[in-house]
Target: Gamma-glutamyl-hercynylcysteine sulfoxide hydrolase
Amino acid sequence: MCRHLGYLGPATGAGDLLHRGSNSLVRQSFAPRDMRGGGTINADGFGVGWWAGDGAFGRYRSSTPVWADPFVTEGMSSIRGGALMVALRSATEGMPVERSASAPFGDARWGFSLNGVVRGWPGSLAALASTLDVTELLRLEAPTDAATLWLLLRSRLRSSTPDIALMALVREIIDVAPESRLNMLLCNGSEMWATAWYHSLWTLADEDLAIVASEPYDDDPRWQPVPDRHLVYATPGKLIVTPLEVNAP
Model:
């Protein structure tokens, strides 16, 4: 499938985060440790998101493997902050490999990434997508399940808290596509929410930082696995892991 990581803590460089640890994100792009039957590499693009001092969300995305993009060595050092998101893509068969299909997706405030797949896409999402404003659908960034999930989640965030919105979306997707894999990551620059639904998810948290990632980038003993079918809330000094209240086979 994919790999993603959300970081909240002391200011760090995006380039440093990509190369950090013996199992760095760059290494995970060609030698991931735990894909659980979702492919073998994550070389179909990548993206980095960050939050500026005023809370505005910015991003850089590419359709090339992270190890092959010259911006990683030539320009990534200019991206630095205390809130970062990284996503490595392993494209699902039948979905395009292009810059606009790479996570993170988002808007002025939110960053979003999917590690997983919606089975039966696009037909399985047709009914849910029909509830969206037509103008929003016409602005879909890429014809992929992940981009569509972001539009569906954003519509729910307008009237729900992030945890409720994520839980509702998982429930709705599993109802129409029960074999889907739904590890989603959402961040607003100060807090993170994530779901573990089939794929691996880990956390590293203390009073100063919070990291949510598909797999650890080093051997720090503070890394903790998230049980399958659980919801994560993380911010420096606070980590809450609760069962996803979704009925599914």
User: Anything to note?
Assistant: The mean pLDDT is 94.
